[in-house]
User: Which sequence fits this backbone?
């Protein structure tokens, strides 16, 4: 009889095998679990199409507590009808049911996205993805995002509408999660080897924080401070002037007549505590060139006088970094007095952009400067006390623990002052080139506010008054809200915008110990611009309104809104298209959003061309000139002119400024495109064009000629002997959130450029396009680059991408009742409480 | 032959309710019960189990028209040509080896086994 111990080596072998196959190794998922056809990724390979289903749900919270509930006789069961594009049309008796179903349906399609993006917002990625993400999480927490989310929830829950919506939405998500077995987990959970956790309202708020982070964070304060120091105030003011040369503001003087004429210090500031700002300070309102970020957008509206139908038409395309799954999720929500269609952010109840039977609305990013750095004097290196308002104040230390998968938890000490957090402590590495060491952050995203309440109140809004009342709750990020109903159009610049001295916040506000006044509330924000002074326009004579992240107002507006506005190239194109427009249709609105004519090219190319002497140039250069001269400024995928122009301009820009800033864009801000163009237009002999590294005196013409020659060579090289096509020079892609190439949408070929209305470029662009005609029943077109399903194993994962790329819109199905248009419905889901 | 069929069926049926390492259990049981000549039990239980995994994977592969397998293959830098058959092979191998190691242990525990 053998001893069973003889089998020990085999037992160890098997155990070893199972352990290896059952655990994540670095970034390799547990192979046994992952490849099991019963439990692993194979289960996410979608087969066939879903059929009608009924689901009995666990007991919901008390529906009778919902004030919106009506006794219409409709049963408590919730009907969700999915159309052929996978858009859920939700029909419920009351608001709780609506948001419950929205949570359920969104989780069904996008659970992992919701999980990972809420974790990102709360600085909880390393908890499931390991030590590589510690720095990411640390930045979020040091910048105050999770703390602000928690504080905001305490405020938000006092609004019963918001509380009901968030709790119902959570319950819906959790009803979905509760029924999941590991085999049913979304693909990425299996790839990363972690499980979904229960959803909470705090996680929803984290998504709102993400929106604020993307759209209102960051400025070039740090870089501009260095640039100012390098150039001195006079030259700085010249190169970083009052506003963008050629700016075409959203609200020129004649559109917003209601603004105050005089900044009377006593009347305007909401909470003014100590000495008023020095009124003799120069108005150094300046402009910040902003690197291309994913926060540009267009919106516009045409009054009935300019449309064929006689009803207003509204268009909106928010530009964001494009990802799969898409940031947007389409749905229709009906119940409890609400009946609306639009796009939501997965994880947040309500819709962000959309329409109902009465109104339509959309947004572009406001770009006001609500983000400032303040130098702080600490008493010593322990950071225990800081100088503020004439005394040493105790620092508030917050101990924060970051659990880290596969490693010891990180215990971090956050430093908080009365202004805000100090994200980077002494002897620490800055998080990026714009995060200064030992500076406090003053940012409206860290104030407590209830933006969700604004989006919730838009859903049942029936007119302009309801619309204004709803958006009043939106503090951060500031937005240009566009509005239309069947007889009115409007545009409102909405947000909580600090009242600042004109030179406040454009650079880092340093604590100069020789003038203790800077370390006091006299340099703090002096309240916020009252609602009544926020620019808006309603039914203007011109019959149209538009915004594209450009300057909000002209110089007659008495408040300083910051200088982070985009150049007016897209806005200018919008204005030129809308001004003459008559007999517009939905198609016309869609064409506007697909427009690829760059105003930047139109204004700049002639200035460059006139510098070229077409006699003493090579054959290739002559060919290039011919192409450029015949160009209509359209950025088409198969065109060769766009790359030639882009290269020419980029070279010219670089040659102009590189010697002044040591070729360094990491430490210095460089002058903007409009400033450079204005110089080229007005003064080609300007000293700015002289390369200080050479003994000769260069002019703009010299730089233009050299840049042109280089551009021709670069284009030929990239095109392997012929001039490179635009799609090849600047291709497009839509990556997966994890940046795994095969999960993205690959390399795409499409028209468009960053300065065009059709801003498709790189992996940035119109994340949603929508055009709505406000007939008695609104008619709408829309589309986004992705798919309703977040499952890479589903054909609905990226099914919209091709149509979006080509600009082919979908008709958005706005149902009046469940059961309407049965041919448009693929299947339905009934949720029975 | 019996071993092969038993391994295949047990893995297939049990897989729907049991965790991913079910083939190991199948292997241990088969190895213990059917301890015979060395290579046969191991080979046939591994093949049977592996085939069960491979068949189920193929079912998904075909129904999904290779959509997901192609993406997964690329993540692992595995060529995905030919209906992602390579990925199915990997799947089958993993299931088969799991059963195989289980079989080894099972035979090792069997009192009848003589070295």
Assistant:
């Amino acid at each position: 009889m053998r001893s069973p111990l003889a089998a020990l080596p085999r037992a160890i072998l098997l155990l070893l095998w199972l352990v290896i196959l059952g655990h994540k190794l670095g970034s390799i998922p547990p192979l046994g679990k992952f490849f099991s056809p019963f439990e692993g990724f194979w289960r996410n390979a979608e087969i066939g199409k879903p059929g009608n289903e009924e689901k009995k749900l666990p007991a919901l919270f008390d529906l009778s507590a919902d004030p919106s509930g009506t006794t219409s006789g409709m049963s408590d069961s919730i009907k969700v009808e999915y159309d052929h594009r996978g858009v859920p049309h939700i029909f419920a008796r009351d608001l709780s049911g609506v948001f419950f179903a929205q949570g359920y349906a969104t989780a069904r399609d996008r659970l992992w996205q919701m999980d990972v993006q809420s974790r990102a917002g709360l600085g909880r990625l390393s908890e499931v993805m390991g030590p590589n993400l510690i720095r990411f999480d640390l930045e979020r927490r040091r910048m105050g995002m999770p703390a602000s989310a928690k504080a905001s929830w305490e405020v938000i829950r006092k609004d019963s509408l918001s509380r009901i919506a968030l709790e119902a939405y959570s319950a819906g998500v959790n009803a979905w999660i509760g029924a999941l077995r590991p085999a049913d987990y979304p693909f990425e959970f299996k790839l990363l080897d972690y499980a979904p956790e229960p959803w909470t309202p705090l996680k929803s708020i984290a998504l709102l924080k993400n929106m604020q982070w993307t759209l209102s964070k960051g400025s070039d304060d740090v870089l501009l401070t260095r640039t100012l120091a390098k150039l001195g105030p006079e030259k700085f003011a010249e190169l970083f002037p009052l506003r963008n040369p050629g700016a075409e503001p959203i609200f020129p003087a004649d559109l917003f007549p209601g603004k105050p004429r005089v900044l009377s210090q006593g009347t305007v500031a909401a909470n003014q505590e100590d000495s008023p700002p020095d009124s003799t300070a120069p108005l150094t309102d300046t402009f910040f060139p902003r690197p291309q970020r994913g926060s540009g957008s267009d919106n516009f509206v045409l009054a009935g006088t300019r449309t064929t139908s006689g009803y207003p038409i509204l268009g909106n395309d928010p530009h964001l970094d494009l990802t799969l799954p898409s940031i947007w999720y389409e749905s229709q929500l009906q119940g409890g007095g609400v009946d609306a269609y639009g796009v939501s952010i997965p994880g947040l109840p309500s819709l962000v952009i959309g329409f109902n039977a009465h109104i339509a609305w959309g947004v572009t990013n406001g770009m006001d400067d609500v983000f400032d750095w303040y130098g702080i004097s600490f008493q010593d290196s322990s950071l225990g006390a800081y100088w503020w308002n004439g005394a040493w104040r105790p620092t508030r230390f917050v101990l924060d623990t970051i659990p880290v998968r596969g490693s010891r938890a990180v215990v971090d000490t956050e430093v908080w002052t009365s202004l805000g957090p100090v994200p980077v402590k002494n002897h620490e590495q800055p998080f990026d080139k714009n995060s200064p060491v030992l500076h406090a952050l003053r940012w409206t995203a860290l104030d407590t506010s209830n933006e969700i309440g604004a989006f919730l109140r838009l859903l049942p809004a029936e007119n302009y008054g309801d619309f204004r009342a709803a958006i009043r709750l939106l503090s951060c990020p500031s937005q240009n809200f566009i509005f239309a109903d069947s007889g009115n159009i409007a545009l409102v610049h909405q947000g909580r915008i600090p009242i600042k001295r004109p030179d406040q916040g454009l650079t880092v506000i340093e604590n100069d110990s020789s003038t203790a006044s800077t370390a006091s509330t006299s340099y703090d924000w002096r309240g916020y611009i009252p609602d009544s002074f926020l620019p808006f326009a309603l039914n203007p004579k011109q019959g149209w309104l538009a915004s594209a992240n450009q300057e909000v107002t002209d110089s007659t507006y008495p408040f300083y809104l910051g200088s982070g506005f985009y150049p007016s190239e897209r806005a200018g194109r919008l204005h030129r298209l809308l001004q003459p427009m008559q007999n517009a249709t939905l198609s016309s609105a869609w064409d506007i959003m697909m427009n690829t004519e760059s105003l930047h090219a139109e204004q700049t190319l002639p200035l460059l061309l006139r510098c070229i002497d077409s006699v003493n140039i090579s054959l290739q250069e002559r060919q290039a000139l011919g192409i450029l001269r015949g160009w209509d400024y359209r950025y088409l995928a198969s065109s060769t002119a766009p790359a030639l122009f882009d290269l020419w301009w980029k070279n010219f820009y670089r040659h102009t400024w590189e010697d002044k800033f040591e070729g360094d864009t990491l430490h210095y801000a460089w002058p903007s495109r409009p400033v450079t163009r204005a110089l080229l237009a007005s003064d080609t002999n300007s000293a700015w064009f002289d390369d200080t590294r050479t003994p000769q005196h260069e002019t703009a013409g010299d730089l233009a000629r050299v840049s042109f020659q280089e551009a021709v060579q670069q284009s030929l090289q990239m095109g392997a002997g012929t001039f490179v096509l635009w799609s090849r020079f600047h291709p497009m892609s839509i990556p997966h959130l994890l940046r795994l190439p095969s999960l993205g949408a690959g390399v795409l070929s499409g028209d468009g450029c960053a300065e065009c209305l059709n801003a498709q470029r790189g992996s940035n662009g119109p994340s949603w396009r929508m055009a709505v005609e406000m007939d008695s029943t609104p008619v709408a077109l829309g589309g986004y680059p992705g798919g309703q399903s977040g499952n890479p194993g589903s054909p609905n994962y990226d099914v919209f991408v091709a149509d979006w790329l080509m600009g082919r819109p979908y008709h958005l199905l706005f149902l009046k009742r469940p059961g309407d248009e049965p041919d448009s419905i693929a299947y339905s889901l009934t949720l029975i409480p | 032959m019996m071993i092969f069929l038993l391994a295949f069926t047990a893995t297939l049926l049990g897989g729907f309710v049991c965790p991913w390492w079910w083939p190991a259990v199948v292997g241990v049981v088969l190895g213990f019960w059917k301890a015979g000549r060395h290579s046969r039990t191991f080979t046939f239980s591994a093949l049977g189990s592996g085939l069960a995994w491979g068949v189920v994977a193929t079912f998904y592969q075909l129904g999904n028209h290779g959509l997901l397998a192609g993406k997964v293959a690329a993540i692992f830098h595995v060529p995905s040509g030919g209906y992602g058959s390579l990925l199915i092979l990997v799947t089958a191998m993993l299931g088969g080896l799991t059963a195989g190691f289980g079989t080894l242990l099972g035979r090792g525990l069997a009192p009848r086994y003589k070295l």
About this structure: The radius of gyration of chain B is 15 Å.
